[in-house]
Design a protein that fits this description.
The chain has eight helices and no strands. The chain is mainly α. The protein is elongated.
C-alpha cells in the first residue's frame, strides 16, 4: 500500500514545487524586479525570434495545407465544396495552430531552456551569479518568461496567417473545386474577433507553462550531463501532458457552451 501511494505523493510534491517556482518567476515580473535586467530580456527575445520564427511558421504552414486538403475532400464527399472554408476557419484557428505551436515550443524552446540552465547549474555558473549578488531566478528565468511574453503573441498571430494562407492555397489552387470568392465568403462567415483572442490566450497559456516547466527543470538539474538529459526528457513529458490539458480546458471554456457557428440562419 505504501509503495502504491509513493508515486502519486511524489507527483504531488513535484507539482507543488513547480507551482511554487512558477509563482516566484511570475512574481518577479509582476513585481517589477525583472526590469533591472530588461536588457537580458531583450537579448532572449532576439534569440527566440531568430531560432524559432521560421520553424513555427513552417510547421503551421504544413498543417494549414493538411487541414485545407482534408477539409476540401470531406466537403466534396458531402457535395458542398465551399464548406472547406469552415474547416480552414475553425481547424486552423481553434485547434490545430495552438497545438502545433505548443508542440514546437515544447520540443525546441522548452528543452532548449533545460539544456541552457542545466549546463549552467552543473558547471556552478548559477551559484556564481548568486555569489556576485545577482538573483539567479530573476536573471535567468524571469527574463526568459518576459521575453516569451514580448515575442510569442506576435509570432503566433503571424503563424495563424500562415496557416490560413496555406489552407487557401490547398483548397483554391491545388484542388480547385471552389473559386477564391466562394472559399473566402464561407471562410469569413466563420471568423470573429473573439475567436482570435481566445486562440491567442490558449496558445500563450501553453507557452507560459512550457517556459516555466523548462526553466524549472533546467534550474534544478543535477547529476552532470546525464542529469541534464534526464531533466530534458522529464520537461518534455510534462509539457506534452500540460499542452493537451490546456487545449482541452481552453476549448471547453471558450467554445464548449457556445460554438458561435453561423449555421442554419
Amino acid at each position: 500500500m505504501r509503495g502504491a501511494l509513493a508515486i502519486p505523493r511524489g507527483w504531488l510534491e513535484g507539482l507543488g514545487d513547480l507551482g511554487s517556482f512558477s509563482a516566484r518567476v511570475i512574481g518577479s515580473i509582476v513585481g517589477g524586479r525583472v526590469v533591472r535586467f530588461f536588457g537580458e530580456a531583450l537579448r532572449q527575445s532576439g534569440i527566440l525570434i531568430l531560432s524559432s520564427t521560421l520553424v513555427v511558421w513552417g510547421l503551421v504552414f504544413i498543417i494549414g495545407l493538411q487541414c485545407g486538403i482534408e477539409g476540401a475532400y470531406f466537403s466534396r464527399s458531402v457535395g458542398a465544396p465551399a464548406n472547406s472554408g469552415v474547416f480552414s476557419a475553425w481547424c486552423d484557428l481553434r485547434e490545430l495552430v495552438p497545438y502545433v505551436f505548443g508542440y514546437m515550443l515544447a520540443a525546441k524552446v522548452g528543452t532548449g531552456f533545460v539544456a541552457e540552465l542545466g549546463s549552467m547549474r552543473i558547471s556552478d555558473e548559477i551559484d556564481a551569479l548568486e555569489v556576485m549578488g545577482l538573483p539567479s531566478l530573476v536573471f535567468l528565468c524571469g527574463t526568459r518568461l518576459l521575453a516569451s511574453w514580448l515575442v510569442l503573441p506576435f509570432m503566433y498571430v503571424a503563424a495563424i496567417g500562415a496557416g490560413f494562407f496555406a489552407s487557401y492555397l490547398a483548397v483554391v489552387l491545388q484542388i480547385g473545386e471552389v473559386s477564391s470568392g466562394g472559399f473566402l465568403l464561407i471562410f469569413w462567415m466563420f471568423q470573429n474577433p473573439p475567436d482570435l483572442l481566445y486562440s491567442v490566450i490558449k496558445a500563450m497559456a501553453m507557452a507560459t507553462v512550457i517556459v516555466l516547466v523548462g526553466c524549472y527543470y533546467g534550474y534544478h538539474a543535477s547529476g552532470g550531463p546525464v542529469g541534464v538529459g534526464r531533466a530534458t526528457a522529464k520537461s518534455m513529458v510534462v509539457n506534452l501532458v500540460l499542452i493537451h490539458l490546456i487545449g482541452m480546458l481552453g476549448t471547453q471554456a471558450f467554445w464548449g457552451a457556445n460554438p458561435r457557428a453561423p449555421i442554419g440562419g
